[in-house]
Structures are given as structure tokens and as C-alpha cells.
Specification:
The chain is mainly alpha-helical. The protein has 8 helices and 2 strands; from the N terminus they run H-H-E-E-H-H-H-H-H-H. Belongs to the tetraspanin (TM4SF) family.
Length: 238
């Protein structure tokens, strides 16, 4: 005997929420894959300065997002099927998966909040080391110059700060993006520290919005799944 009345409404409401959850998982998976293969981040974070690799903290977060997106799609499908079939077992499994996923999201959110400034800081330190090597006479013996040029061309910047960014292209044209004139070089050259901050803060902001939306949906789903499970149990008694 199927559920009736308000419980039936909850059943279809849960199905709709799970479908949205499944779509959200697909969107997060797609966004994570886009961030993983975005030309700006890949050009910078695949760089190697001698034996030192560029910081990979950002990619750790991206791999977590890929895993979360894939799990969300599976859990969303499980919830849809459990709601339609009115299966207490599937709904119980779905609720357990949601609790685990929610706990993981909270943990990932805390990790991301703690490391959000560290990501940009590590990349800026890596850039500064490469920039110093590129200015040295023996820079041709290492790949410091190539690393710096990749930063400059990818982010359209020059130098770690405004003062150095203006002066450097005037005597090291081989390191900085070329402008049409000296005036444009002086007034349009951005420092790379600022560009690095903008690059990662913008992407982390996008990830944060997606995480908040998903967390709200998960809370509603946990409540609805428990109410529906109780409704199915009561209807089976009668």
C-alpha cells in the first residue's frame, strides 16, 4: 500500500529535490573539470622551477570537488529511486550517504577557508623565486626566465609589485608582455601579486557559492527523507 495525503506530496517533493541535487552534482563536476583544465591555472600550476614544482594546493581542492560531484550524482539517483519505490532501506541508505557527504562538505569548507589565502601566497612565493632567478646573470642555466614569462603572458602582468612592474619592462623587454608604447607600459602594467590574488579569489568565490547552495539542498533532503521514511513505516502498519 502506497503513501497517501501529505506524505505523498513529500514523496514527490523529495524526488524533485533529488533531481535538483543530481543536476547540482553534474554542474559541480563540470565546473571542477573546467577549473582543472582552465588554461590560466594549468599554465601556472604545471610550471617547474628547477627541482621545485608549483604549489598544488589548488588542485587538491579541485580533485575533492570532482569526487564530491560524482558522489552527489550517485546519491541523487539513489534518492530519486528510493522515493519513487517508497523503499525504507534505500531512503535510509540515502540519508546515511547525505550525512556523510554533508560532513565531508563541512570539512572541505573548513579546509578551504583555512587555506584560501595560503594558495595564493604559495603561488606568489613561487613566482618571486622565479623572478629573482630570471634577473640573475646565470638565469639561462635554469628555467626561471621561462617560468616568469609564462606568468607574465598568462596573467598579463609584470613584476611582483607596481614599482618593479613599471621599471622591469624598460630594461628587460624579454621578460614582460610588450605594449605599444612606453606610456602604456607605465600605466597599463599590473603587478603579478595582484593578478594572482584575483585569479584564485575569483575561482574560490565560485566554489564557495556552489558549496552553500548544495548544503542548503542537502539539509532539506535529509529532513524530507526522514519524514517520508516515517510516513512509509506508518502506512505499512495500516
Amino acid at each position: 500500500m502506497g503513501v497517501e495525503g501529505c506524505t505523498k506530496c513529500i514523496k514527490y517533493l523529495l524526488f524533485v529535490f533529488n533531481f535538483i541535487f543530481w543536476l547540482a552534482g553534474g554542474i559541480i563536476l563540470g565546473v571542477a573539470l573546467w577549473l582543472r583544465h582552465d588554461s590560466q591555472t594549468t599554465n601556472i600550476l604545471y610550471l617547474q622551477l628547477g627541482d621545485k614544482q608549483a604549489p598544488n594546493t589548488f588542485y587538491v581542492g579541485i580533485y575533492i570537488l570532482i569526487a564530491v560531484g560524482a558522489v552527489m550524482m550517485f546519491v541523487g539517483f539513489l534518492g530519486c529511486y528510493g522515493a519513487i519505490q517508497e523503499s525504507q532501506c534505500l531512503l535510509g541508505t540515502f540519508f546515511t550517504c547525505l550525512v556523510i557527504l554533508f560532513a565531508c562538505e563541512v570539512a572541505a569548507g573548513i579546509w578551504g577557508f583555512v587555506n584560501k589565502d595560503q594558495i595564493a601566497k604559495d603561488v606568489k612565493q613561487f613566482y618571486d623565486q622565479a623572478f629573482q632567478q630570471a634577473l640573475m646573470a646565470e638565469s639561462e642555466t635554469n628555467n626561471g626566465k621561462a617560468v616568469v614569462k609564462t606568468f607574465h603572458e598568462t596573467l598579463d602582468c609584470c613584476g611582483p609589485d607596481n614599482a618593479i612592474g613599471v621599471i622591469t619592462p624598460l630594461w628587460r623587454e624579454d621578460l614582460c608582455p610588450k605594449k605599444d608604447s612606453i606610456v602604456k607600459t607605465v600605466f597599463e602594467t599590473s603587478n603579478c601579486h595582484k593578478k594572482i590574488d584575483e585569479l584564485f579569489s575569483g575561482k574560490l568565490y565560485l566554489i564557495g557559492i556552489a558549496a552553500i547552495v548544495v548544503a542548503v539542498i542537502m539539509i532539506f533532503e535529509m529532513i524530507l527523507s526522514m519524514v517520508l521514511c516515517c510516513g512509509i513505516r506508518n502506512s505499512s502498519v495500516y
